[in-house]
Amino acid sequence: MKNIFKKGFTLVELIIAVTLFTVIASFSIGAVLSIFDAHRRAQSTKTVVDNLNLSIESMARNVRFGGSYYCGISSGLTSTSNCSNGGNALSITFNNTRIIYRWNGGINDPIQKSENGGSTYSDITSPDTKIQYLRFYVFDSDTGGEQPYVIAVIKGYVGNKATTQSSFTIQTLMSQRQLDI
Question: What angle is formed at CA 133 by the lines to CA 167 and CA 108, rounded to 5 degrees?
Fold first, then answer.
């Protein structure tokens, strides 16, 4: 008797193979999409943190080469004021100009800078950066015998959704470069 059946796959075997391939492909595509999403979030977080670092470096440069530190908003070029309890604003005399950094206290309020003694302000942090806390602490600005310094503490987060937020806390000490003695 002659074998009339040819060797090959049955319909059931083919359906099982296609189903397994589809399941494995679905998991693989999901993993690749998750990796792309994580990369996009990491890139946006890096951009915001780089912006915040640039803002802090600008503050530090003005503190290093400036003088007459005032904890609060002062337009007087020679005004000095310590504040060990902290304040939301910092005034510095830099190149015979009063520079003011401030935060108005709202979660959507950026850190702002005025280069004309408080007449106008411009944002120095991006809208994607949500500041929750900002305090400037000024020490030894009005003693004349000690080197003045400023401590800035900034807390906040990056990201709009609760599941994609990255929080940060930055504390930096800035001191005058030239001796004020």
Answer: 80
